[in-house]
Write the structure tokens for this entry.
Amino acid sequence: MGAGFFYSYHLGWTRLDARTLLGDLEAEGLRPVHPASGRTVLVSLDSASLGARSPVTREQLLSLAGLQRLHEVGFRLWTDGGDDLLVRIRRARAGVVAVEFSVGELPEPEREHAVGAIRRTVGRASVLCIGFVVDRAGATAATDWDGVVIEGAAHLEAWPDTVAVRDETAARHPQLAVMEAVEMSPWKVFGNEVLGGVGGV
């Protein structure tokens, strides 16, 4: 994934969750269909064929994005203006699925729209979303975010714009446990935007 990202972490991921996520993103103006060609493509994330594209139908994408047969799947979402971002849905640790959006590929206005759209989509899935991370510049890309959000254990060398975790995860994490947070049920929210007094994500 390139610099600048939005990661969200989900329990109990199914094909229905993939369908709901994509439907919500489409309603927000982020669509898996290329605006000119009308094609939907999978993007290979395998090192041997990195970036290779395979056309699929929307139903095929929804089926694959449920991760019933695959460990991970990559595809692109397109904005109304024709810009695109890479999305990876993958199995992480402890039965959790990570959905990773490479928002750093977008020009700033489109990036802010995408971050807001993804945040609203994640909010609608909040019961099964155990946390999320927003880092527009990608400064914390090397951080073990699976370890932070899922296990409440990995060390933070730097702060992203926003990191949200469940209460019990924050209590376990040596750094987050002693930091002030904003309560945003069902998460505690930390990060540069929160520490700097900037609302939202």
Notes: Residues 197-201 have pLDDT under 50 and may be disordered.
